[in-house]
Structure formats: structure tokens, C-alpha cells
Amino acid sequence: NARVVIVGAGHAGGSAAAFLRQYGHTGPIVLIGDEPLLPYQRPPLSKAWLKGEATADSLALKPASWYAENQVSLRLSGQAVRIDRTTQVVHLASGETCAYDALILATGARARKLPIPGADLAGVMALRTAADAEDLKAALGPDKRLAVVGGGYVGLEVAASARVLGSHAMIIEREARVLARVACPVLSTFFQDYHAARGVAFELAAAVEAFEGRDGHVSGVRFADGRVVACDVALVGVGAIPNDELAREAGLDCANGVVVDAEARTIDRRIFAIGDVSDRPLPLYDRRVRLESVPNALEQAKQAAAAIVGRPGPAPEVPWFWSDQYDLKLQIAGLPFDADQIIVRGDVAAAKFAVFHLKGDCLQAVEAVNAPPEFMVGKQLIGKRTPIAVAKLSNPAISMKDVAA
Ligand code: FAD
Prior knowledge:
- By secondary structure, the chain is of the alpha/beta class.
- The chain has 3 domains: about 5-110 and about 240-310, FAD/NAD(P)-binding domain (3-Layer(bba) Sandwich); about 125-235, 3-Layer(bba) Sandwich (FAD/NAD(P)-binding domain), CATH 3.50.50; about 325-405, FAD/NAD-linked reductase, C-terminal dimerisation domain (Enolase-like, domain 1, 2-Layer Sandwich).
- It has 10 helices and 27 strands.
- The longest helix has 16 residues, at about 295-310.
- Flavin-adenine dinucleotide (FAD) binds near residues 79 and 295.
């Protein structure tokens, strides 16, 4: 009947509450979240929801009735400000306290800001929360000019959605290619070309010096070479930083996020950290990583819930991720650590292909565009860690089933 307190009512926190009940936990569960909303999915905020193809209700992980029926006590618009590990109490900004036997930190990450002049002008936005998404959507529309600073997945997705909404879009990226940190050059070139063909402009290897404003509202982006690109709205999508302050102040081990083990447990046996805020081991690659993805949030929510109820943890999963842009479905499995060979299978020009990353004859990662079999079989092969028939892989006439055989 342990009393479980979860701080952070996002994808990981909300899912942890659900897995605890699913695994038979009967004790009290308190879910503290500083947003006013029930736990919701963030991925559609840059995709279907932004384009008007999904309702706000459809974003919720569970309906309000589920929390009442499952006796999950919600403290929405409630911010945890301190953890007292000696007395096992979480302090909220309201002055309320919540005692715990087990504590799950699921505080996620926040959008990184650009420390440049004009960054606080109205119309310079980030996209992390539903409230951010409302602001962004209200600023987009026919003939609005959007400048996206940062050519990562969120930036590309928002540019694609903006084009569908009739806005002009420019992607400004510091590196020489988009997706430079997260994808291989084949994919970078493909996505840039696909966007460019749909009217998105690019400024690559660009140094943004300031946002210019008029009457307190952003009016343009200024580059280090003095050029100014006019815009009505600017989205800063330059990555996220973990919300690990609570853990740091409580003396928990933190590196790139809160350091946890394979059960999502911190150095304090009673405290777990899951989702975007955690720095976790990835046994498959013998590394530690901080992953920002829904599948990771779910996997760690299962790990923490299983450890709390005392049942065996879930089998290790191959990390994966997806991104939707226009009619493209990108699915990525694995991480290309130490890969020494790349094999492109399929037809890049026809937007149906996969890039396989190999280390010797072992598959490390696959990036698949509109190619679900390559993604699914690739993901299985990565998990198996067995040598694969590399020659077969590069021949699209041989089915993925036969490649795996
Ligand atoms: P979050 O969902 O961020 O939840 C953390 C919650 O904790 C937040 O509500 C935060 O406000 C709250 N909190 C923080 N500190 C406190 C405190 N002290 N007290 C109380 N509450 C607190 N992933 C994919 O796999 N595929 C995608 O296509 C994809 N697209 C994305 C698109 C966008 C626009 C964004 C923003 C993210 C996307 N992601 C995607 C990433 C995915 O949404 C995250 O990995 C996931 O939400 C992580 O869940 P989390 O619970 O760890 O963090």
C-alpha cells in the first residue's frame, strides 16, 4: 500500500500512474503537474493538432473520469519546489506537502532559449506545451511569415504544418545541414529538398545575431553578416534541457539529466526518474543517454512501476522515434553509435527508402521514410544483435522478411 507521488503530469508521469494501477498497485497515487491540463501527448502539437486535424480532447492520455475511477489524486497547476529526502516529503509552491514511500520524478525538459537580443519580443516562441501550441497556431495562417530557428525535427514539422496552413516558412540552421545532430546526411538532404519543393526557404550555416522588433513584436531575424529576414512570427527550436533542478537540489546524482539505473531508480532507492528528465543506461549499446521520445517515456514508466510493485521489469526495448511531415512518415529505430557503413535501400527520389547503419555486419540503427517493413524488421534485427546478411539488405528485390531469415 505504498504511497506513490509522481512529480510531472506529462507523458511519462501520466503513464506511470496508469502502469502502477495496471500492475496491481492498490496504494494511493498523487500526480503533481504544473500545467493546468490532464497528461497529454505532445507529438501532435507540431503535427496533426497544429494543422487542425486533431482536437484538444484527443491529445489527453486518459479522460478525466479515468483518474477518479482509478483513485489517482491530481494536483494540476501544482508545482513541486523541494524534495525532503529525510522526511520523504515533496513540498509544493502552494505550501501543501505530499508524503511518499516512492517518488517518481517525471518533470520532462523545457525548450532551450536563445540568449540573443530580442529573444523576449512578442512573437518569438517556443513549442513545448499545449499553451505554446495555442499561441503558435494563432500566429500562423495564410501569408504569415514564419522563421524557424533550428532545423531539428520540431522545427521541420512546424514548417511543414505552417505550409499546409498557407504560411511562408524559412528554416534557419547553424549547421551546414538540417537534422545535423540527429540524422545522417542522406536524410538531411532528402528532407531539405522535400521542404524546398514545397516552398520552404533555408538559411544553413547561419549565425542568428538578434531578433528585430517593431512596437514590441518581432519583425525579423538578423544574421551576423547584417542581413535581416522579415518575419511575423519566429519559432525557436534549438533543443531542450532537462528539468532536473529538484533532483539536483535534493542531492541526487545528475549528469545529462537525473542519473538512473535499468529500473529507472536514482541513487536514492525510493526515488525514480523517468522520461525526458532522465539520464539512463541503454544496455543494447552499453551507453548512457538522455532520450526525448514517447517510447522511452513509456518504457521507463513501466520500469519504475514494475520496480515499485515488485514485479520483474519489462524486457529492454530498442529505442525508437517517429516524425510526420507532409505525407512523409519517418520512423527511426536504434542509435547509430560507432556505425562504419551506411546502406540505402529503396528509392530516395520516390520518398520510399531506408538508411541502415551498420557496425561490421551488426545493425545499429535504421532511418525509414515511408518504409514500415524496413523499420519494423530493422528494429527487430537491432534488438537481436546478430550478424545480418548485408548483401541481401541492399537489394530491395529481396523482402525484409528474407533479409531477416
Ligand atoms: P513532458 O511530457 O515534458 O512532461 C513533464 C511535465 O512535468 C510537464 O507538464 C512539466 O510542466 C511538468 N513539470 C516540470 N517540473 C515540474 C514541477 N517542479 N512540478 C510539477 N510539474 C512539473 N516524441 C516522439 O517519440 N515522437 C514525436 O513525434 C515527438 N514529437 C514531439 C513534438 C513536440 C512539439 C514536442 C514538444 C515533443 C515531441 N516528442 C516526440 C517528445 C515527447 O513529447 C517527449 O519525449 C515526452 O513528452 C516526454 O514525456 P515526459 O513526461 O518525460 O515530459
